[in-house]
């Protein structure tokens, strides 16, 4: 120490020292996680949620770890307000040279990850382990599987899903002298329920959140519209003929949804958003916020909202917000031109850059076992993808009474489809949020949707749909 | 000639006892220098790694197209020519300019008014209480404050509209109209940042020369005249400092619009930094996002330079 202090410090030595320090910092920042690069037996899972939730979910890996001595599975929680936020953070993690082996991805990001060659197709693994997977596919609706495909390849095995159904605050329904509508209710019925709730309950009859899933987009689907043209990629026969040969619900399935040219200012879409503007202007709905929907659940639970769009995950959310079983219920979304619902499905994909793909596949298979899905959907935080797991017992604590609606949305309404999520999903979600609030503020849905059409055309052109 | 003589003298001195003293002094100075380098090395390295290099990287990246996943592609000035015609970028600069102007002016006016009021309190205890109360919001994160205020200002369920309606006043579309959302963001930003400006003015007013104020008072000048003719010119350097710092901060406003309005309704409150975040991190266009950052950086430099130029006409340092 003394000799260092007493020796003269030249500019050159400072520069050399500084460069060495920077070099070290740079190298440490660029090196990928030790686990996957060294080929050791550690699987890194990027999990959408807080680290606390990730730690709680990590117990799903215990049977797998027990069956594979020496293997560790690390769940890294990446928090975000919505899937858009989550993808941004995962992509930043990739840019930092630290990609995970496995990532939890919902419909929103399947095509984005697949198109960018970030996700590894599971086709060969599924074909190889077809006997082992047959009971799983038999238990899962083909629409969920198809939503995990892109250009003929399968990228994930669905573990859970949520379709946009309609939730009712039964306290407010009773106060207004109303009952849960019938499954075949229409938009006229919806309007009349909303009017009655407004007059009799004092609450806001209907509220919603600005986002792609379960927003005014549910009305758009029921009105027969979509933001982009719908098509199917060819391919996927290997899967349908193997696992769904005798299932009529698999007829017409292809190699994944092909989201084509934007149609955001088509008549059906404009009519849907116009309806939302009128609903707000007539006091039958609140002007919505942009966000993930947790505030909406809080308001619903405190009897301030009569109806809102929710999926199976709302059961757990409302229960956690303090609602007793019986104080809320659920029904199909009303029929407008059609009674078409939208849904999103979740699962886990393998990163192309993973050095442990075989091991990751074994883990993915373990995640679709009923016991694992039970952990992943605990507290009804989401809806199991396996039909056999939809039981009265599952909803006995949280409710709702009419829980069958969740899976019936897939089974009884065959035109139900995933949300449009092309590879430019992030840009689409941002543009949709912006243009929706513009329409609600200005009252001019057509002008806002003309803008959205332009935004989507630009996004599609820059990414290549 | 003089230099030569000095050098000869110092050479002579270097060989005698005087030379030993000079050598010791130089050694001590070198030792001190080395210690100084050691002390600043960590800060210098962190500034280099976390501030200087990212800035340089941003400048370089602005000439590339990069989506994180694929290798960056050099596109020359394409990002800059594109943004010059991009209405969303131009609009965001307009929004940011409006917000910044309102925030800076209100912060200075309200901060100064509050500082004057607090200075008039005779009780030291009361002054301390007010100073602490006004400064506290600055210590809370802008994101947390924005979340709380978004509940307060909610059009349907917010407390503010609830009380307005109790008073038979119409509810205001705080967050769902362009004007309302702009006003709400300004209110929240001013409320939170006010403490900083307030403390600056309290210090400036506290250090005004008492003899001058007494002389003015003896001359029979009223409080308004005293404020505009004496106090205001004397604290003009503080006003200038608050304006420069306030403008730099306000032009980079992000937290409040991001949390409270997500830039809406429409793009009414989409600020430039929000647009940079959206472009780079959500639409994964890092090159284009960097180009917008560079333009914002240059604009801030120009605006600050202009403030310094104009300050010569109204800031009094003596």
Automatic annotation (TrEMBL), chain B:
Region spans: Disordered: 1-23
Residues that span the membrane, as ranges: 35-64, 93-117, 129-153, 183-208, 228-250, 286-310
Residue ranges of every copy of the ABC transmembrane type-1 domain listed in the record: 93-307
InterPro entries tied to this protein: ABC_transporter_permease (IPR051393), MetI-like (IPR000515), MetI-like_sf (IPR035906)
Major localization class: membrane
Keyword Transport annotated: yes
CC terms in the record's Gene Ontology section: plasma membrane
Membrane topology label: Multi-pass membrane protein
Family annotation (CDD domains): TM_PBP2 (cd06261)
Subcellular location: Cell membrane
Keyword vocabulary terms for this entry: Cell membrane, Membrane, Transmembrane, Transmembrane helix, Transport
Coiled-coil annotated residue ranges, if any: none
Keyword Transmembrane belongs to the record: yes
Biological-process GO terms, alphabetical: transmembrane transport
Annotated family: Belongs to the binding-protein-dependent transport system permease family.
Protein's name according to its UniProt entry: Sugar ABC transporter permease
Species assigned in the record: Sinomonas humi
